[in-house]
Batch of 4 targets.
Target 1
Amino acid sequence: MNTYEIRKATEQETSTVIALLKDVAIWLQSNDIDQWGFLLKGGEDEEIRQAIIDNATYVACQNDEILATFTLYSQQSEWDQHIWGQEDISDVLYLHRVAVRPEYMKNGIGKDTLSWIDENVSKTIRLDCVAHNSKLCAYYEKNGFSLIGTTADGHCKFQKIHREGNGN
């Protein structure tokens, strides 16, 4: 049984969340996965900080350690508009930066995080990932997301439509 909690990140945890994301970016590169390299250059530090201030970023914690993080935007970012086109839909959340500390990968934390979102959010969830990361694409499908298209620049678009009773 997992003994961690999922809650909103606090402003005091900003540097820890950014460091976790950069650790995952390094892990991706060391495993020849071309993804998130821009994070290593500080490419989204300010956006990450703002998402925490806006209460859109969550962390999975055990004792006092952050094991994982994710962000749920209720409004489209510029990136979401690029991927999905401009939408003004109130019952959709956009999932970004799902990350588990490398030393805790393969322990079910990512799956548990996606299940927690499914059980605690009563909206359709949309996300994207690079199409060439076939393991990640398969992972999202295995966790109940439907592939609904691929962009011209090589990003898979996934969504999970909320239905009453999900997770029960």
Note: The longest strand covers residues 65-73.
Target 2
Amino acid sequence: MDILNKAFALNENALRVRGQRMEVLAANIANADTPNFKARDLDFGEIFKNNLKDDSANIQTTNSRHYPTDMPVETNANSALKYRVPFNASLDNNTVELSVEQSNYGKAAAEYRASLAFFENSASQLKHALTSE
């Protein structure tokens, strides 16, 4: 079963991080009228860049242009949680700009659905390979 865990670890972690980002963006939207609230966001790329560290991967890359083969061992979202700098200053020191947050949430939801579809496709291919005669 270790091979299945490795096969799905990247997809599982991507879905977890994308879900966490959607929660952060939803909190920003919910606090759009809260004085002194500071909008935050997760940097998906930074989370994966910092957590691609697993020496147990058996696949070796032979060219610098190949995709990395390491699997993320942990997703520490707190290190990638950043405060957003607003385009326009607000009188109550709230940095949430509703149109920006709604746009980012819509994009994050589309990315989540794409990651989920990729995961479902991978699982379907594996199931087909295991049950094929």
Note: The two ends are 21 Å apart (CA to CA).
Target 3
Amino acid sequence: MDKIKSFVEGVNSRSLSAFDVLFKLHYRELVYFSSIICGSVQDAEDIVHDVLIQLWESAYKFENHIALRSFLYTSTKNRTINFVKRHNKQLNDISFLDLRDNNESIIVAITDAEVLSLINLAITRLPSECAKVMKLILQGYSSAEIAVMLDLAQSTVRAQKRRGISLLRKYLPKEAFLFFITFF
């Protein structure tokens, strides 16, 4: 608990090391969340960078990690929706509003981002070669593509994949593991 409290205090004081931790903890999940809304990973990365810069330049103070996460998700959602509105206004298309402003779809996107964050955290606990393979699987690469990228035999990739799945089954809650399995 003290680590979390000191982390939030570091963010409140705009400590560079705290922002480094903030980036490592939340960047991927926020990009994923934003990309679900805007449909583009590149645009989502820009949006999340803007949110983190806004936080750095602001005077916002947070009482706890929950308040900080809430700020990050709310800011990311609002910036992403504004981006989509501006982008679609240029295209004279506002039909996205029905889908994009639906609170239920936003909640699903947040949940998916949270689960993805759990999966990524569990992957960091895997042995290094196994973690490399599992990260590439999450990115959508096939065993054959991973074998070429990592200069491994396909049988080695499949063995690392089996090992990773076995270990992740132990590290992840059942629901998160089932979400992970959908990537196969």
Note: The radius of gyration is 19 Å.
Target 4
Amino acid sequence: MGNPIDPIFSDRRAFADFFTSYYTFWEPESCFVAVAGGEVIGYLTGCLRHQLQPWAQGAIFLGKIVPRVAYNLLRGRYDDRSRDFIRWTVRRAFFETPQKPRGSAHFHINLLPEWRNGTASRRLVFTFLDAAKRRGARRIYGQIQTFEDRRHPCVFERYGFQFFDRRRISKFAPVVKTAVYVSTYVKELAE
């Protein structure tokens, strides 16, 4: 949700590797960084090779993330919350992830809180959408974490995305007292 993961999982490196390694290694041409005043304020990582991504992500997970996390678990380097997060990942993550449209490109975007005013996200999203369209993508989806009372998913709707699926997610329960959802939005790219 744009904030440090530390209150939920203390291994920032493993967490970052899980969420970015595929994109930076296999599709760096689909990664975009937003900079303002010489400082990084956000990024967008995209995936256009949707047939390759699950296999490559699985290899990264099993070959890089699992050994690191297992080693740290065995060495007693994780606190209770981190161990809870690992249990959640193994037992519940799959079931709490909303459906996504098959055969679709996708992206992940994250901006510093003070830059979530729409301008930076719009530039990142439309830069990626233009690049994806040039490279032959027909459909793109994104997922956003939302709450009952704030962070409305209208940002995706403003960009021409349609609602696809939503699931309540429990991984943030230790630090967020309101219900958190992950919603999938999809956009058909015009010919």
Note: The chain has one domain: 12-188.
